[in-house]
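Chain X:
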Amino acid sequence: MILDGKDCAAKWKDEIKNKVLELNNIYNEEITLAICVVGDNEASKIYVRNKVKAASYVGITAKVYKYESDITEEYLLEEIEKLNKDASVHGIIVQLPVPKHMHEQRIIDTISPLKDVDGFSTLNKGMLFAGAEAILPATPYGIIKLLKSYNIEISGKEALVIGRSNIVGKPMAHLLLQENATVTVAHSKTKDLPLVSKRADIVVVAIGRAKMITTEYIKPGAVVVDVGMNRDSLGLCGDVDFKNVSNIASYITPVPGGVGPLTIAGLLENTVKTYILQKK
């Protein structure tokens, strides 16, 4: 069965839209999201356009701040600090990747934790791992939302996360742990990955290798979530061989139309959360 991320995200955005309307009526002001874009990355342009469109739908004002790729890191940090101090801005995103001469984590950590809607700052990640209330990274957050929307049991299941990035892999593993799954994290150094993978009831794949995960990695009846976004001769594809794996998985996300829309909805939900936090 297909895990329809588009449908789940559409319903989620309608929920967010209602929350935004309610908050507008209470506080009589716009909720504003600032998106900082450095350089001219083509993929980033598409992602930002989609974020602006989705924000508009739910009633959030998204303002895009564009910077040339050759600006200094210090200049960008100063711009972020201005947004931190601007009470009319309630959420801040620095669109990744940034140019190679910039230190990505330093830039992210300059964003106020109360405006860090990506949930990528060291403080927000630390709060997540400590079990405290935190702004959750949008992709893992969206995946949990998707699984729950299909009433997929997580508690007590054996879950495997393939990939250990700070953006998806590590927080995904922690959120699955919070849902009482038994979690394994696999990566490029994992031995006998097909054997490890075939034990799992839930497999989340975020490795960035087109169609690497084939039927030999998947237990019949497993739930497969594909976070990958790659391009091959046929167009966009994920990290999972969807055509063949879909024949044995009980549930599987497509690419596109799976996890991507949920990431954007998660960012909008986080923007509402940061707005509320700033009102406390």
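Chain Y:
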Amino acid sequence: MRSHDILLICDDIQVGCGRTGPFFSFERANIVPDMVILSKSISGYGFPMSLLLMKPELDVWLPGEHTGTFRGNQLAFVGGTAALEYRKNTDLEKDVEIKASFLQTFLTKEIQFISKDIETRGIGMIWGIDLANYGGESFAKKIAMRCFDLGLIIERVGRNDTVLKILPPLSIQMSTLQKGCSLIRQAFDECLKTA
């Protein structure tokens, strides 16, 4: 990158702020980006907020020149400060590691074993169940709808909405995470019986 004078920009909007364990998702890659984009979890309580972190030598904007929808929300700043304090005071990174291990084990033992055509992938507290080769879009939609009926909202993403996205709050209680996973498994069991 340096030899070609190209900026390295990391998009941590959804995977940053501890979602993958460390605060930034790219830390495990041992890279130093020129810019980092943060949003979603950065406000700590779901208020609209985003940040652009950049190396000082790249900051050539004048005050007020960089505007946007998610800038300057005082309540989000307070929530973001509280979230950073919470992360520090509760060892959130270790907690995410424990929950991530649970999710990975659950997906391997309870979902992947259903078929070699079901692929799961993820890290930390963001995982996907890829059903592209196992029922495709219609089956993914059926699972998501059954989860909703059972009281669990699960988003479909990826090509043709064939991936069920598991994206629980970082501060979720383990019992609630276990309950959510059991609902996913129940939805699979029930949808497979009627397939």
